[in-house]
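Give me structure tokens for this 295-residue protein.
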Amino acid sequence: MSAGARFRALMQLAHKTRQPLQIVGATSAYMARMAQNVGFKAVYVSGGGVALSNLGVPDLGVTTLDDVLTDVRRLTRVTTAPALVDIDTGFGASALNIERTVRDMEQAGAGAVHMEDQVLAKRCGHRPNKQVVSTEEMVARIQAAKRGATDIVIMARTDALAMEGLDAAIERCKAYVNDGGADAIFFEAATELDQFEKCCKALPDTPVLANLTEFGKTDLWHIDELASRGVSMVLYPLSAFRAQSKAAEAVFRGILQDGTNAKVQSLMHTRMETYDVIDYMSYERALDAVQAGEK
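Here you go.
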């Protein structure tokens, strides 16, 4: 079964049973393996995560298609949990660019992509001064994405709530599904649970995703609260990255201040815990067997 088919099955089951699919961001192949090991059934490649973790730059449209594809390929080589991937506005101004992006993502092993209705000079969804394109332009983007897709899930993200209000944002979502053919909706930067409920009721047959990014505009609601409003997927895009960052900063400061790393070991995985994430011992056993056969 393809990654797209696996993601679609998980999404549809979540929508049917009203038990939302939890999707967690992984900024490396190692973190994706860890997420899968602890029980997450799907992972996320965040555009912000690629920009911050691998390029050290803001999430302001700086990353390229190849930057994101590199991370996707690394994740999909070592995990079976399908990946939802952030493709910003499609990585290009033309329909042909968007078709290529989706084809490349599917070939790289992505299970789903989400594309937003911001202008090409995009901003973080939880920051001010966003601008969105017309509904018609976004519908054309989605149609191009669908032409590039085989099994991969196409999710349309709207950032219009902050600029145009709830009713207009929902009308956009309806057009993205009914005219564009989007498989799911990413309803960005909601500030009230009722906003999700109204969106889900307007599109009863379409799975809707809630983005619970920390320190943003959206409260960190419990999964049960979101399920009761009809939400089918809950995304935690940078939770692990933020935790890693805080721990890493404490380790760096501790080593510099104390002249030793002994006092910060409590913040670290042990060697064996790290090995367990990547199933290191199986690699070592395979190497031992090869070397034994050479004797």
